[in-house]
Amino acid sequence: MNVYRGCQLPDDRAYDIEGDLWVRMEGDLARLGMTDVAQTRMGKMVSILMKRPGRRVRAGGSVATVESAKWVGPIHTPFDGEIVEPNTAAFRDDILIANRDPYEAGWVTIMRPTDATKPHRPLLEADEAWAAYMARIDDLDISCFRCAD
In the chain, what are the domains? Predict the structure, then answer.
């Protein structure tokens, strides 16, 4: 795991730097979530509205809409595909789950990409993403933090 200015970037997934999104392939499925940078920038989450299982989404389309104290907006998918399992129960039980644990319990959705080799924007493996994320963190002048009880 890489850490810079408190921002974590696990080694076992790919990253859409511009979208502040991580993707972990699990067989033919893709688990998607917000990065540490995303959860820090948005602040404490207030609500999330997720697309339902079976819903088809286009690359660049929304898999969920997030509302926080600072921001309202979509979480985009890098692929065309079908929503398989939104993480609805975890967010219902703890709306701050992505603020507390963005890379494990706070994942957003699992989808079945139509073609995982054709993402909407480049997906960088962790080693490639690291330099780009350090530059993004510096450009945004942020230090990541996690919500506590």
Answer: 13-131 (2.40.50.100)
Distance CA 64, CA 42 (A): 14
Please give the Cα distance from 34 to 7 (Å, whole number): 12
Element at 89 (helix H, strand E): helix 88-93
pLDDT in tens, 30-74: 999 999 989 988 889 999 999 999 999 999 999 999 999 888 999
Dihedral-angle region of residue 3 (phi above 0 means left; psi in -120 to 50 means alpha; beta otherwise): beta
Backbone angles phi, psi at 56, to 5 degrees: -90, 135
Angle at 117 between CA 113 and CA 123, to 5 degrees: 95
Cα–Cα distance for residue pair 126/12, rounded to 1 Å: 7
pTM of the full predicted structure? 0.90
